[in-house]
Amino acid sequence: MAAKLDPEQLADMKAAFALYDKDNDGVVTTVEFASTLAGFGVDIRGTQFEDLIVRCDADNNGSIDFDEFVNMMMVSSHSHEEDEQPRDPEEEKLMKAFAAYDENGDGFISVEEFHKALTNAGQKVTLKDVEKLVSKVDKDGDGVISFMEFALFAKK
What we know:
With 156 residues, this protein is mainly alpha-helical. It has helices at 7-20, 30-39, 48-56, 66-77, 79-84, 89-101, 111-120, 127-137, 147-155; strands at 27-29, 63-65, 108-109, 145-146. It is elongated and about 60 Å long. GO terms for molecular function: calcium ion binding. One of its GO terms (cellular component) is myosin II complex.
């Protein structure tokens, strides 16, 4: 996708990518993405921005490299066209499953929400067991499972 950009557009994309890639490691993580958007005053609660990342993370490694970033920006700039297309059935299943665990609808699955859902499903797990599970899935260490983390875990 980057090859289809003229030199000025490519320079603009590189500059935009650099804004998001806080540690200059060549990839943008969900934390970097969220931090930059929050800095711009964008409301990042919920899963909308993570949904975009999941769709654009072609190699499913949980971060966005430059080519994926360009694709994401192109998709984002044509979001009205994206809304007209049906969602991938697998993505739809993931979103429904995530919503079932995200009881309060804040876009994150807390240890308590996950524990309650597992208990209601008949699983005999302690809160400590669920904390261990969440810590394995929680890539950014914030103590909750985001949609991105949930999707990456489900794809393994």
